[in-house]
Records
---
Amino acid sequence: MAPPLVSVQMKKNKNPSLVLTLSAAGLLIGAGSVAYWLLAQRQISSSDLLVGANIIPGDALFAVSLTTDPQQWQKLRQFGTKETQTELDKNLVQLRDRFLTNNGYDFQKDIAPWVGDDIAIAILAPTTGNKPAPKPVTTNESAASDQQSMVMVLPVKNSEIAKSILAQPKTLKQGKWIDRTYQGIAIKQSEGQVGQNFSAALLDGRFVVITDSPKATERAIDAYKNKTSLATTGGFAENFPKIANYQPFAQFYVNVPTAAKIAAASPNRPLPAQVLAQLQNNQGLAGTITLESEGIRFKGVSWLNPNSQRVLVVENKAGEMQSRIPAETLMMLTGGNLQRLWRDYVLTSQGNPLSPIAPEQIRGGIKSLTDLDLDKDLLSWMKGEFSLSVIPATPKEGSPNDFRAGLLFMVHTSDAYGGQSLRKSAETSISKLDEVMKNQYQFQVQPGKVAGQPVVNWISPYGTLTATHGWLDGDVAFLVVGAPITDKIVPKPNYTLAGTLPFQKTVPTEPNPTNGQFFLDVERTVKNFPLPTLIPNQQTLLNATRSIGMTSAVSDNRSNRYDIFIELKKVTNATTLPSPEESKNNSVR
């Protein structure tokens, strides 16, 4: 099966939303990575970087590399369901036919004999126009100079075959091929095509560079010769090796500040100046995707701008909460320090229209509902590990309940473990909350016991037990809302989520130590609870997924690491991708 070598439409009438679409596509391919071989002290080599990183200009908005190994693409098609396989095939066939078949090329015959193990595709930012540009080669180029452009880098394993392909390209349906030279590099360029013109060049017999703009070709050659490529961009060479892997399916990179500028220029959702300034602290997001026997693994890293005054606090002290919740837990999210997490959220989200909820709204909502100050009354004692979990209820005969699951919140009130206990401050705030529920909402606030341990129950005016709070092991505060599932955590369960096979198979063990983990049993959750629609084709994707796990950590004071694994179902007797002839016959029918 041929990989989608040209997976980006080479149109000159592009718009700023293209980079966002491609970023989403790259991340969607992505969720995966396997066998982390990297030795922390070894010398960085080109094999540790994204293919073509020494050619792609350093101001690229987005770059993704894809394997050319047909076996890996066939392995991808084995995951999911018949519905997801059909959707994947439709997209791959469209891309292959549009950019290979329709132009007279066959991957196995024309490309595979000379191309390397991976190819790269990058989207370049529009030229700024601050410096005078050389006289344009064509009128079309001048019109496109302020548009996003695309660069493809194809490593060459057989230069003679690659040279012959470039020397005698297929005849164009419109226009003609012309030859020109830039910085001593011969360029083959199309001219006269409606809406698109291509350029191709062979660099040092090692890389074929294909672009949708003559100017983009020159920018790639300049980056290669002047060493102003992605490989020299701040933090890239230092951080990308952290997620390097052997024979990945895909890798990607997002230039955060440049992408933010593009988003700020969008008329639909402009970013305020203060938000844009905050995003300048962030430099890059990169990931490696690999295919494993049971699903897709993603290793990611994000890093700050080397010139940023902001630094990260290296504090990875999560990892206990999954041993406090029962095995039947459907969803779990943990973190190392809720107070610090909130401060980081405020820093990056205040005034940002792209944030889910504005910090001011959260503060105002809590103040309005409880008369408590979020920062002073609550977060001030939430400096330890915390967790949020969804636990299904066990139906009890003769005891009807309006809730099918309970929402459990737990937080360690010690100051970053081993520090000063903040239980007294917590008790004061919780007592205030009890008074609010009693006086403002007419709840009955009643002491009770579960397995001999004291708890406090909130009973609604209708007589239904709505919430329970208490303490575990002295300084872990908990609050249960919804179904009465307190007896599942008090006493501490013998069979915990951490000991289950789904959790152990799905949640990555690296990085370790960690500052947070996430687990979602997709199969059981979808089967028992309706979920809000957040993305197109959501139900199809959920039906193909068994579980999702993530582990994160602060790598150093400039970078964060993330590992994600998505366990997927498999298609029985997966077929091969339809050939161009089969696709043509199907479309005729």
---
Amino acid sequence: MIRLLIFAVLVLLLGYGFSWLADRPGDLSLVWGGELYQTKLIVAAGILIALIAAVMVVWWFIRLIWTSPHSVTRYFRARKRDRGYQALSTGLIAAGAGNALLARKMAARSRGLIRADQEPLINLLEAQAALIEGKHDEARQKFELMANDPETRELGLRGLYLEAKRLGAHEAARHYAEKAADHAPYLPWAAQATLEYRSQAGDWDEAIKLLDQQKIARVIDKDTANRQRAVLLTARANEKLEGDPSGARDDALAALKLAPDFVPAALTAAKALFREDKVRKAASILEQVWKAKPHPEIGRTYVRARSGDSVADRLKRAERLEAMRPNNVEALLVTAKAALDARDFAKARNKAEAAARIDAREGAFLLLADIEEAETGDQGRVRHWMAQALRAPRDPAWLADGVVSDKWLPLSPITGRLDAFEWKAPFGQLEGPVEEGTTASVDAALKSLPPVREAAPATAAAKPVSPTVASPVADLSVMELEPAAKKPAPPPAAKSEPAKEPETKPFFGGAPDDPGVKDLKLEPEPKTRLKLF
């Protein structure tokens, strides 16, 4: 377009020049070799321009003949290169589709048409073909060649990193990831892998520094960077909690500024403030997080903030949390547990039943079983609530990659992923059709709750005996004596001797634990009368 515009401008200028000469007629005289040559000025200008054009055409023709061998060679070279790139493109598509045979064939054709030092993608195609065929040693050699080339260094390091991860060589994988992150911190995979490796090693300072570099380079978005920084600060605060409470407090508070509802940061900050005897400030932090996201660990820490508080004081603190978030399952359960500790069974039972009505889960029924155990001690009712707990969904817990942990961790113990733990309910039952009566319901459980069993008397009153007479049968229970007394005596047999009384050995004045008493044996038949001395 620009060339066409320039050509049009030149034509206009040339036409304007001829029109200008035509409007100003004149003669041009030339003396050459003693001869006088005279012509019109416009004719002389036309002859001059034609002469220049002829010279240019002759020069172009001579140059074309002179450079024709090189032009022909360049034409065939370009054609060969185009065929090589076409084969390379076909090979990469075949490698992506998993066709190792075609990928190998196209790689060999590309190498024959294009030099490998001119096109490093040939090494990539051969490496991909080797990976498809399972020739990992050959693939690693190709990746090493690419890692030594400045143009393909990042590609080669990624291939070596993935191979090291496949073999479980974590140190080698960390080396390749850190090397890639040093040369190109904008690479998401290298930066994330290096961040996780430094976090696994507990090098929180370097991990935070690398995260800041990623944020500046805009590798990750702002919200993700703030969340991960809060996780790293909380992990560093947990390590400082024992030896440096003030440092742990500063890190945890900084994490709360980045993620205001981050429960682990709030717990760590509260524990650090407890160590510094700043109970009121710690309670304020716990209250703020509780309002945003009620959590049982927040409630437990808040209720037991002061170690010297009585159970009544703890119940009041639990009721204060419930007032902040009424009709919340976690708030009701916290109040129910505090009421159980205070022996206020009626309030504990009401709160636990209310929590079970909102969310009929395992913890609510287990708490009802504890309340039943403490209040009535009826094992039948306790087992009834335990059976409901077995059928109920499980309580939320810290879960990451299928692993349930009793406390929050910054990294997954399975994959090493940062910020992997989530507070949610694990899968407790196999998925399938829900049959009638298979799910727990607090109303149905209350209807089927067995009545409280009355306690049976320990021993029954025996017939009075003389206090001055000691008998070896004085300790026998009525359950053994009365049936024998009520049983009628057998009729006397004909022509038989009169029934004799069972012969008993009187024992006077012996101690209750005397061996003579222990060795004494009574004959069960005939059970007519027992004669006491």
---
Amino acid sequence: MTTSEEIQQGVDAALAKLGAQAAPRPGAATRPFRVSSDRLDSYTQKALQDECDAIVHARHGDQNNIINRAAFNVGQLVGAGAVDEDEAREMLLSAAQAGNHPEGRARPSIESGLRAGTASPRHPWPPVSRTDEAADFRDLVDGQGIDWSDLEHGFPEDDEEPADGLGSEHAEDRENQDRSPVPGLIPEEFWVARTELDHIRRAGHSRTRSGDVALLTTLTRLSGMVSHRIRADTGIAGYASLNLFGGLIGPSGIGKSTGMEVADRLMPAPQGLDFIDGLPIGSGEGIAEMFIDTVDEETGEIRKGRGGTETPVTRKVRKQVRHNAFLYIDEGATITHLMKERSGSTLGETLRSAAVGQTLGQTNASKESSRYIPKGSYSLGLLVGFQPETVAPLFEEVAEGTPQRFVWVQVTDPSIPDRAPAWPGELEAWHDAITAPAGDETSSPVLISFDQAIKDELRAADLAKVRGQVPAEELNPLDSHAPLMRVKLSSLLALLAGRRHVNAEDWRLANLLWEASCATRDAVLEYSAAQRRAEQEKRTIARIQEEVRVDHAKQLAEEKRTDRAVERLALRISAYVHANGAQSRTQLRERAAGREKRLLADAYAYAQLREWLVKADGKFTPGPVPPS
């Protein structure tokens, strides 16, 4: 019978062989980077080295956040005049390359971080002058507003209040402060950039919910309420729809659905707007159907009645009667189930079309079953809550382009304070900006304009892609919709502020949002890959264990068959010796069949063990016990 030790030995040997063949983890840093410059003092060089080291060793899924944070810190040194901006940019880019981070993703994070850091210079720099001859430390840092009275009391004892000001009852808060940041969190510089953004985060925190979730819910809700005639004009291709799809990533039970309620209170639907609010999704056909209703339509004929009365003749028709909708799905598994397992499902195709404002539905021979929603005639926001385990099937549709049309945020928010802030009230500035002037469906669209520098940047990037000038390693299929997504985000941020013009700050903030989305997405992909590896390892171990059991069983069976064959051969040659007298090995070998010759040595040993034979003078003679 197979023992657990024998099985485990077989498993360990097989896994060791597999481990020896394993490839190195993709994205791991392979090249060191050393900051070296004759123009920098030792303080500045050390500070730059620390930030570059952080970039080189940034873990997978959090690279953009780390790069942006490092660039912000270096930007503060640029603002203080400690390092030249071009030199700082070159060093940060070199560190990103040393960490195997794609330049196309690293450069925007570096630029935005440098800009923000330069605007907030670090003073004084260096912290303590190394050239000052003053002997007393107080003289070196005099004028910095330091309270020297603490020197009179020395260091606190173990039972005194911790230096961070948190008592023992807040030990968990101190632990939270020391934990690594969650990959993909929207950075602090985004929230402090504008009052309405801080307003949204405070609204989320007042309900003990993530500020990131409150923001994405607000933006997707806004995209469903904005007039369908309002579109973005970047000078590239056609006018862009503002339809926005958002994905919330987090485990069950920590506030994905209740986060939506925060946006409901922040941004209630305007009075008079025929707005589908929070409807769950059912099918691709259902998305088109929600914009349609049966109405009475005049035929142009007149029915004459008594006394000369005339009544217009009407008929019942199905047609598009509404233009605004916001959909919310609490469990993303619903979408993936409908897309993957329902035969003939059109949901994936409909979602991809709806994300860019294209035509929905289909025309059938029967008018009653026809659903036709022309492109540009609707505004749609979609928010989906995913658990990390349920989102993986959506990323299998990269070739079709489904996950690229989503903005992703984490549900976890370490910045939620212990004490809930007061509810900040409704947002105000957006109402007029989302309403188009009076007009019918044939009226010209109302365009959101962009700073010329933004249009130039978008055009240059588009030309490089169309001309095939983008390096193959930077053509990540998951980033194929990145320019369009930044256009949508920046336009919605402008509308949130009450404007229909996207300026440089809108564009910078949209880039920060998109970088956070990409980091969240990458963290989800890494998690899914780790899950797949774990499942594969479990299957591999189970397969190896089964193979070890089978092999061991075969070995035991073979051993049993061999033992019986040896016993039979020993019995036969012993009987022959007892009948014919002493025999040499050669004589006995001649008596054995060809297939038995390999068993002779064991047969001799077995016959002697049973005392059937005795070896004397180089021959086998009859033993005291005759074979039975």
